[in-house]
């Protein structure tokens, strides 16, 4: 915490001649203890899940249910996704998200997130909002499975046997 205070006040005593950028220096200065990281992860993840569940319950309200659903469901997914930033840090999380094995799932999830909001606010289509939420959920699941060794292969083999 002292290092963060020094960096923010400009008293770090280091010249930035080693080529590190401001984001890297801020990332190094903002180290959290493991307990704080776990608390942040659990809070952000549980808040995201609760937003998604609340949004799903609000879907069936007349007049404004679709908009509330789309916003809460999307905010919930963003919170759940960003919760892992507490564990590995924001820069490493962004690098992991766009790594070769996760890039397609990440892009599909983010595009479906935007399309969910578009279908609720501009197109006002319940069917499209539900479709994009389902695609968003599947992409998020596929993204999450990429962190478990051989999980994607197992799912693909199970689906090939079923079909």
Description:
The structure is a single chain. This protein is mostly helical. It is 75% helix and 0% strand. It has nine helices and no strands. It has helices at 2-9, 22-29, 34-58, 65-82, 85-88, 90-97, 103-121, 126-145, 151-162. Helix 3 (34-58) packs antiparallel against helix 4 (65-82), helix 4 (65-82) packs antiparallel against helix 7 and helix 7 (103-121) packs antiparallel against helix 8. The chain is globular. The mean pLDDT is 84.
General shape: globular
Helix-strand topology string: HHHHHHHHH
- Uncertain stretches: none
How large is the share of residues in beta strands? Answer: under 5%
- The overall pLDDT, averaged over residues, is 84
Count of DSSP helices?
9
Rg measurement, Å:
20 Å
Fraction of residues in helix: over 70%
Cα separation of the termini:
55 Å
**Which structural class do you get from the secondary structure elements?**
mainly alpha
Total strand count, please?
A: 0
Q: Please describe the biggest sheet, giving its number of strands, its sense, and whether it closes into a barrel.
A: none
